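Protein data sheet
==================
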Amino acid sequence: MRPQPAVGRGVAGFLDENGLLVMALTAFAIVVVIGLRTDLVVDGWLALAAGRWIAQHGLPSRDTLTVLAHGRRWIDQQWLAQLALYGLWRLGGVKLVLLVHALLVSGGLAGAAAIARARGATARSVTWVAIPVFFAYLPVASVMRTQSFAFPLFSATLWLVLVESSRGSRRILATLPLLVLWANLHGSVLLGAMLVSLAGLLEIARGRRPGGHALSLLLAPWACVLASPYAPHLFTYYEKILVGGDFKQLVSEWAPTALSPSTAAVYVLILAGLWLLGRGGRSVPLLDQLVFALAAVLALQAVRNMAWVALVALAVLPPTLDRLRRPVPGHRPLNRLLALGAFSVLAISLVAVTLKPGTWFTQDFPPRAAAAASAAAGPDGRVFATTPLADWLLWVRPGLAGRLAFDARLELLSAGQLRRIARLQAQAGDWRATVSGYRVFVLAGQSDRTLERALVDHLSARVVFSSRQVVVLRRSGGATSS
């Protein structure tokens, strides 16, 4: 019998030892791939529309796409991610965009699991922690948007902060170029800067590093987050995304994370994590405790931050869990079989999704609705579209640019404008004044039913297109000027 090649022995040994974990991570990737049909929503349409604008006109500085924000400064911090997503669309259409999104999201999760394994956690403990992590991570991570690029960058930064910092390695300084890249992809770079600064602060307190290196870790990350074409204006932008601006009332993802069936996994992770870290006592590195506490606070501050505490939990909790339980060896041949079976299902899922037509991924956005809205608006009519649909209209009907009321970039709107939009959605106060001057209304077919009835009853609007997903109404007799 010929001896097994070293590479083959290495792969087989890896699967024997990590098969259960590999199966769990692959199962997550399968769920993400199968769910790609519903992953392209408002933020994804905004990213594609903005990426096209950048490719055609260069970096924006003032808004020209909407009515309410026209002429206001547009700080497009996420420009590089938008341009990358548009480039992917040019190369392979919506399918390639979504498949790369699935890779980025799954890669971020696998990176967090690798951190735990690199720090000595058993594959079994990582797998157990991964189960609630999946449910906390998926609701936020599954949405295709510029944030998708941030997940692997977060895991890479977390690796350098937790692993290289504990070794006293200068390789932790590699976080700085990562932060520079991240600063042009997504605003969550602030969290990465916090992690690196936290590591630098602890190094200074312990006196383990020469002052210059520790001071670099403390201060340099904040220079990195400003390494952008929009550097002079980023302070205002970051301040808005940190506190959620005035649009928490309009966008549920910016609201605090209240306990519900969809957020229960986050509360389980936070409470179980605090208990585990408390039980571990001094055996748990102080940096682990501080990083977990920071991620937990951010997760409770806003729904959109749930993904970060999930990744941190997967990286820091398994080693602590191993300290409280005796490791149990897995059934190694079975582990390999489970992993190979999961890989096979993933491959089948990828082939099946890749063979789907592009319209399968966008079926919740019927082209006939966009055509009806454009025809009803004519060459100069203004369109009031609710947030889930405005950027889709911008993408499929570029001629509507400058005539849509507003879009997902709510940070461009004033507090007064946001309050008026909120009153419109609730039909409270003088809500009809908010839509004065708009000829066409494009509403979400299910969630905007009350607003649809109000427009029909009070503004004599008539339905020109209706489906389960989208309703288009045209104001009878046109619209008064505003």
